[in-house]
Amino acid sequence: MEEALEGYLRSGMLPHMWCAGCGNGIVLHCLIRALHELELPREKLAVVAGIGCAGRAAGYLNLDTLHATHGRALTFATGVKLANPDLTVVVLMGDGDATAIGGNHLIHAARRDLDLTAVVFNNSIYGMTGGQHSPLTPQGSISTTAPEGSNQRPFDLPHLARGAGAGFVARATTYHHRLLTRLIENGIRHRGFALVEAVTYCPTAFGRHNKMGSPVEGLRWQRDHFVDIEKYMGLPEKDRIGKEPMGLFYPAPEPEWPD
Amino acid sequence: MGGALVRVDEKRCKGCGICVGLCPRRVFVPDERGKVRVGRPEECVACGLCDSLCPDLAITVEPRGKGRKEAPAGAAAV
Question: How many domains does chain A have?
């Protein structure tokens, strides 16, 4: 890691507790880089995290951090922000934390449009508790609670957040780390509720059951599976199968003349 | 070429193999302890991909001279 970014880490806490090849460390790196680019004074920053693998990210940050209860990171963050509106508040949650147990808090935080930036580490599974199905587990995927493959549709998180009222909605993968960094940065700049979905690969609890292979193959899968939203929207329906959009969902970029 | 000084922090590295698999110049090699070492440092062009994609935050790339260059054609990163 670049020397200039090391100061954001509680280096005594490393190596971290995440499995070998877990993408959460890449998201953490992107977040640190975004904070560094924003040049925010440390005393004006607060990071709130929930429970689960992703929630542990706050413990590695050498900032004012709060490890909240399961699904309630946004409620604690709401309190932090209301008590001290001068703070920039970043909220770190996993997919289960944010959209299952914390799903109600997520939609109401988006509805209230308070100035918070939620980064949802989406690894498609409950990793820490042994690989149970989450609301973002893709349909057909195998988990310990859906050994025959899930027959349920996952949430479309960006559109869920937008529908609930979030003013900034974006998605990137750990493979597209520069895009992810930029979106986190812009999400923090946005005044109001911002949601950034960070698609990350869990080789242990998700990849292994779904025969997706090594961490390298997980990253290659992200590379091949996700396309820029503008390109995605231009694809004929049949070519969208097996692809997912990423980038800035809302506010949609202005079309360039002469479109 | 010797474009950069690459270091792997052995305490942080868990040997996941991402740098080994994705480095466009094959600078890294897995070692017998299940970690990774910098096997071909002279090949590094300082693209920084390994640093950005190392989930263990274990890799440092210090460019020598003019700073980071873009990854060669066909390399990963967006």
Answer: 1
Residues A243, A220 contacting (CB under 8 angstroms): no
ipTM: 0.92
Q: Which residue of A has its CA nearest to B58?
A: A1
- Does residue A35 belong to any structural domain of this protein? no
**Segment A8-47, tens digit of pLDDT:** 999 999 999 999 999 999 999 999 999 999 999 999 999 9
Question: Considering only CB atoms, which chain B residues are within 8 Å of A176?
Answer: 78
Please give the Cα distance from B21 to A22 (Å, whole number): 15
Domain assignment of residue A187, yes or no:
yes
The chain-wide mean pLDDT, for chain A, equals 95
Give the closest-approach CA distance of B39 to chain A in angstroms.
Answer: 19
pLDDT digits (tens, 9 = 90+) for A113-162: 999 999 999 999 999 999 999 999 999 999 999 999 999 999 999 999 99
Partners of A148 in the β-ladder: none
pLDDT tens for residues B17-55? Answer: 999 999 999 999 999 888 999 999 999 999 999 999 999
B5 vs A: CB within 8 A? no
What is residue B30's three-state secondary structure?
A: strand
In a domain, A256, yes or no: no
Question: Which residues span the domain enclosing A125?
Answer: 42-250
Q: Taking the model in full, what pTM does it have?
A: 0.93
* CATH code where residue A80 lies: 3.40.50.970
Domains, chain B: 4-63 (3.30.70.20)
CB A22 within 8 A of CB A204: yes
Q: Do A175 and B76 touch (CB under 8 A)?
A: yes
Which residues on chain A are in Cβ contact (under 8 Å) with B17?
21, 214-216
Per the domain annotation, does A57 fall within a domain?
yes
Question: How far, in Å, CA of B26 to CA of B19, rounded?
Answer: 8
